[in-house]
Amino acid sequence: MGQNNNGAGQKVGFVGLGAMGSRMVAHLKGFADVQVFDLDVARREQAAASAGGEAVASISAMADAQVVILMLPDSPIVDKVLRNELLKTLKSGALVIDMSSSTPANTIENAKLAKQHGITFIDAPVSGGIGGAESGKLAIMAGGEAADFARALPLLNRMGTKVVHVGPVGSGHAVKALNNLLGATILVATSEIFAAGEKFGLDPAVMHQVIDASSGGSFMTAQAWPRAVLPKTWNFGFAMQLMNKDVGIAMSLIESTGVKTVLCEANAALWAKAVKETPGADMTGITKGIREAAGL
Ligand code: NAD
Predict the structure, then answer these.
(1) Which pTM value belongs to this model?
(2) Looking at ligand 1, which atom is closest to the CA of residue 238?
(3) Does residue 27 sit in helix, strand or coil?
(4) Considering the chain, what percentage of its residues have pLDDT values greater than 70?
(5) Are residues 106 and 201 in the same domain?
(6) Which residues are marked as active site?
(7) Quick check: 2 pLDDT over 50?
(8) Which range of residues forms the domain containing residue 238?
């Protein structure tokens, strides 16, 4: 595939093919010359088929990649993959886009380390869940220099419909964590309200019909309730552990600003407790727990 002006035809590595990455990479089909890697071999094979690309057995096979996209669980893993593998593999001039929800301070450090190798590192985390990843309609918030953002944009536009350049490197990860803390707070509040309504005798489906179209509606009532809460499948597709990680990143950021919070702090404590009690649960497990505590 030859590269052209709109960024098509580039050699692109994609690392991390879980709930999100497996769906995002499929949108690069026919646009980029894709190599995929995940520790899970079956995921590699599936993603290679859906992206029309090549499954590679290690990151060292990505030596010729011009761009590498990361969609990994958290900063400790991103740092390890970047520092121990990518910086030893990629050629000077390559661009690494971290689309995971990582810690801003680690991202800033990663960009510094990458620069020493002539490699550019930017952050471009996403919002919209697996539904947005599947449809290619994610919100994407990028941090980096304007020219680096411009270079990444054609690829980001394949996966998202709202792509915003937020500011310097790390800014995307900062706004992502703050957004998720807000989402996590709304999820807990919505869960408590629905539990109270049901205990009062209201039908949760009818309540949902009203609230989703009213001032109390949110992403949670629009997406999580119909998909995972009302049918009681409790499998929205976003791990409670990942949400708790984002809440922790946001709380550290808030602490560093000196802003005092009441709701966010109470909410963070609830998530930390829920993860301890139900470690492998989906984020909607918090709703299940609130229902159970209410005797529902
Ligand atoms: P996931 O756990 O489903 O997928 C992560 C993938 O990374 C797994 O397939 C795992 O095998 C792979 N992996 C782990 N360590 C690796 C390594 N060293 N090398 C290669 N592969 C490795 O997670 P996800 O839900 O896809 O989330 C990915 C990121 O996106 C997280 O940072 C998360 O917070 C964020 N996010 C998730 C959602 C969502 O709704 N699921 C939404 C927005 C953002």
Answers:
(1) 0.94
(2) 41
(3) helix
(4) 98
(5) no
(6) 176
(7) no
(8) 174-293
Give dist(CA 146, CA 151) in Å, integer: 9
Q: Atom 16 (ligand 1): residue with closest C-alpha?
A: 39
Residue 137: how many CB atoms within 10 A of its CB?
13
Does the Cβ of 204 fall within 6 Å of ligand 1? no
Atom index in ligand 1 nearest the CA of residue 245 equals: 34
Domain boundary among 167, 189, 224: 167
Please indicate whether residue 98, judged by its CB atom, sits closer than 6 Å to ligand 1: no
Query: Where do the DSSP E strands lie in 38-191?
Result: 54-55, 67-70, 95-98, 120-123, 126-127, 138-143, 160-167
Mean pLDDT of 87-112: 98
Q: Report DSSP letters for 216-250, one per residue.
A: T--HIIIIIIIIIITTT----SSBHHHHHHHHHHH
**Number of compact structural domains in the chain:** 2
Closest atom of ligand 1 to CA, residue 40: 11
Angle (deg, nearest 10), helices 171-200 and 240-257: 120
Asked if residue 1 lies in contact with residue 9, where contact means CB atoms within 8 angstroms, the answer is yes
CB 192 within 8 A of CB 200: no
- In this structure, the answer to whether residues 64 and 181 fall within a common structural domain is no
Whether 16 is in the pocket of ligand 1, judged by its Cβ within 6 Å, is: yes
Q: 13: which residues sit within 8 A by CB, 6+ positions away?
A: 34, 35, 36, 37, 56, 59, 62, 65, 67, 68, 69
CB of 149 within 6 A of ligand 1: the answer is: no
pLDDT digits (tens, 9 = 90+) for 224-249: 999 999 999 999 999 999 999 999 99
